[in-house]
Amino acid sequence: MKLRFLCYTGCGLLLAVGLFSGCGAGPPTASAPLIVQETVTPGLAPTPAPANARYQIALVMKTLTNPFFVEMEKGARKAEKELGIDLIVKTGAQETSIEQQISIIKNFLEEDIDAIVIAPADSKELIPVLKEAQNAGIVIINIDNQLNPLISKELGLTGVPYISVDNEHGAYLSAQYISRQITTPTNVVILEGIRSAKNAQDRKAGAMRAFEENANIQLVAAETANWKIDEAYQVTGSLFEQYPDIGAIFAANDMMAFGAIRYLAETGHNNVLVAAYDALAEAKEAIRNGQLQSTIDQQAALQGYTGVQFAVRALEGETLPAETILDVKLVTGENVD
């Protein structure tokens, strides 16, 4: 049921969706706070489908090897059930599988897809193929990692709603939690995500802001581990070879924190503070046993749910806010569930 498009512009219409996250959570309620930017970019929207039609909506994520995206799919599946659509889920093999995501979208150009909800592995390289999809009348919804706005505008990819969290602020809160525990001169390092990804850039910036507020902290290195456990293990080892007295690590996702924690445990570095991001179940367990000090819940399930919900709203001719920012939650030993 490929739907063709009409031009539309809009203002910040907001449908409140509920707050939920984690395995087995109930359906959203009307209580979750959403922060919506006022500016809405004009773009393309299809004509509404007949009342008895089932929309074909694709969710394209980075991978299912990271539990964060497993939770995102759960949220999208809730939306599928509640909204009566057909959800097709595709992912890359790894979070760095950019070419695989491009290939997935190209394949959708030949199928009967009405909308694509995309959590892009890269903020730039996916834009041309997503523009092709938009030209074919497919609605595009951007979640999790933001597509580069300037390049999108240059290539004509317009009217794409973005749903995520404030990654800079979340990273700031997580890094600040360990920064406040540092009262003597201390070397710290940052494990970055994929450097071309906007969420990785924002999380690095947030951690740096938190560390810069503490005069006792010396940021000696920031190295990418590309969101991966094994790579983070290796990078952490290399960093300790260069700086044996590292006292704190900010990892831009929990998976990299797990790699760092494994290295610290194997080498007897028991007094290194570690902050992370994603609030996976394993990260919460690491907080309970003292290996991890903080992480950030960015409501993966709610991002998936809202992405599918927005796709349906766009297909039915509604105007949508250009940007919808969901709340983050700092998770520490004081509030871990």
Helix-strand blueprint:
Layout: E1 5-8, E2 34-36, E3 43-46, E4 56-61, H1 67-83, E5 86-91, H2 98-108, E6 115-118, H3 127-135, E7 139-143, H4 149-155, E8 162-165, H5 167-179, E9 186-192, H6 198-212, E10 217-224, H7 229-242, E11 246-251, H8 254-267, E12 273-275, H9 281-288, E13 294-297, H10 300-315, E14 323-326, E15 329-332
Parallel strand pairs: 4-5, 4-6, 6-7, 7-8, 8-14, 9-10, 9-11, 11-12
Antiparallel strand pairs: 1-3, 2-14, 13-15
Helix pairs in contact: 1-10, 2-3, 5-6, 7-8
Question: Which class of the largest domain in CATH terms?
Answer: Alpha Beta
Percent strand equals: 15-25%
Mean pLDDT: 87
- CATH architecture assignment of the largest domain: 3-Layer(aba) Sandwich
User: How many structural domains can be distinguished in the coordinates?
Assistant: 2
**CATH topology heading of the largest domain:** Rossmann fold
Helix/sheet category: alpha/beta
Q: Which quaternary structure do these chains form?
A: single chain
Please work out how many helical segments DSSP would assign.
Answer: 10
Radius of gyration: 20 Å
Distance between the termini: 44 Å
Describe this structure in words.
This protein is α/β, with parallel strands linked by helices. It has 2 domains: 188 residues, Rossmann fold (3-Layer(aba) Sandwich), CATH 3.40.50; 131 residues, Rossmann fold (3-Layer(aba) Sandwich), CATH 3.40.50. 37% of the residues lie in helices and 21% in strands. The strands form 4 sheets. The chain has a 7-stranded mixed sheet with strand order 2-14-8-7-6-4-5, sandwiched between helices. Helix 4 links the parallel strand 7 and strand 8. The chain is elongated, with a radius of gyration of 20 Å.
